Amino acid sequence: MTTSAPPRHARAPELAVSTTALRKTYRTRKGRRVAVEGLDLRVPRGGVHGFLGPNGSGKTTTIRMLLGLIRPDSGTMTVFDQPVPEHLPAVVDRVGAIVEQPKFFPAFTARRNLELLAGGIGAPASRVDQVLAEVGLGERGGDRFRSYSLGMKQRLAIAGTLLKDPELLIFDEPTNGLDPAGIHEIRETMRGLADAGRTVLVSSHILNEVQQVADTVTIIGRGRLLAEGDVDEILARGGTEAVRVRVPDPATAARILLEAGFAPEPGPPGTVLVRAGAGRPALNAAEVTRTLAQREIYLAELVWQRPDLEEVFLSLTSEEHLGAGGPHVAPPAPLPPSAPRRSGGRS
Ligand SMILES: Nc1ncnc2c1ncn2[C@@H]1O[C@H](COP(=O)(O)OP(=O)(O)OP(=O)(O)O)[C@@H](O)[C@H]1O
To answer: Where residue 237 falls among pLDDT bands split at 50, 70, 90?
Structure first.
């Protein structure tokens, strides 16, 4: 007897995490505060998934529900297709998480700290050097914890989550309090973990920071879904590309560009911001340059202005969207069948 597999395109995307209509309210002195409202979250297996939203938008609450630390009012959640919290014990070893800062002993070396942690959670001591290497601390494992930079301390915390060799890593705001160098270290570490085949679900209120490393994102505001899907696809939906050109006479340049069918607008002093204009499928910088050069206007500078996730967020939560009707819920974009893998970060 032969069994035929369903055609590949018919398969639903494999999800590491999903939630449906998730809702959580907190009881406060002023009554019930809605923290998460009807949230559908879909985190594909493999790659980095950014879970983004401003402070107080419900990210930590969602993560705590997924980890069984608090209970939702209603809705369903799965981790590796297992309903949680009911079946959390079946998947708990496949998940590593940093929700609060783990406590390490300052006077002990990083390696000793991890050995103690491994003993406590029943992970083999042989994993310690492997996980130190995986977060780029292989050479510094013998140094005392207190001599570590904040970025290294955070990488050590990530190493701790890897001791049980989990497939899914959940990091709640892992770059909080770090300087740009530390943020870069954590971004590179997350990229490396995803490139090695793990799934990284990372929350952040700094959208552009995660934009550089995430393959897919979910953007929430006031506990509700605003947008989800592939980063490039969301960026494409979020605004139009433009080039900023510096020219000796911006007003004349703008008039010439308008006549040629572009959509120019005044930029910062001495510049014109040029968009494709109706009837052009995309903006072509060479065409802008040629149009002006043909009229003997030569550019001193041309800079691409690409929309970023902060802008997308602001446009999704602009007054009209957050008016009486509450936040606009963007139609979910289809997720790729398997998350893309990429080496290196975005720029
Ligand atoms: N224990 C609690 N009791 C009452 N309200 C709470 C509690 N925890 C969170 N909230 C409220 O729920 C909402 C969502 O908070 P949550 O911490 O989940 O957001 P967040 O997106 O993680 O924000 P941040 O980035 O600041 O941590 C906020 O309005 C917050 O004040």
So the answer is: confident
HEC per residue, 133-200: HHCCCHHHCCCEHHHCCHHHHHHHHHHHHHCCCCCEEEEECCCCCCCHHHHHHHHHHHHHHHHCCCEE
- Categorize the per-residue pLDDT at 12 as very low, low, confident or very high, splitting at 50, 70 and 90: low
Rounded distance from Cα 346 to ligand 1 centre (Å): 30
Distance CA 163, CA 148 (A): 20
308: helix, coil or strand? coil
CA 223–ligand 1 middle distance (angstroms) = 10
pTM across the whole model:
0.79
| Local confidence band at 238 (pLDDT 50, 70, 90 cut-offs) | low
Find the 25 Cα to ligand 1 centroid distance in Å.
Answer: 10
CA distance 121 to 57: 32
Arithmetic mean of pLDDT over the chain = 86
Q: Give the Å distance between the CA of 280 and the centre of ligand 1.
A: 45
Distance 60 CA to ligand 1 centre (A): 7
Closest-lying ligand 1 atom to the alpha carbon of residue 172: 22
Q: Give percent of the chain above pLDDT 70.
A: 87
CB atoms within 10 A of CB 230: 20
Cβ atoms of 199 and 171 closer than 8 Å: no
Nearest-CA residue for atom 28 of ligand 1: 56
Q: Ligand 1: residues within 6 Å at CB?
A: 26, 28, 33, 35, 53, 55-61, 173, 205
Distance CA 59, CA 51 (A): 7
Starting at the edge strand found earlier in the chain, the sheet holding 224-230 runs 95-98, 168-172, 199-204, 47-52, 216-221, 224-230
For residues 59 and 177, the model is more confident at 59
CA distance 224 to 36: 6
Domains parsed from the chain with CATH numbers: 12-237+310-316 (3.40.50.300), 240-305 (3.30.70)
Q: Whole-angstrom Cα distance, residue 174 to residue 145?
A: 18
Mutate to test the pocket of ligand 1, among 61, 98, 219 (most ligand atoms within 8 A of CB): 61
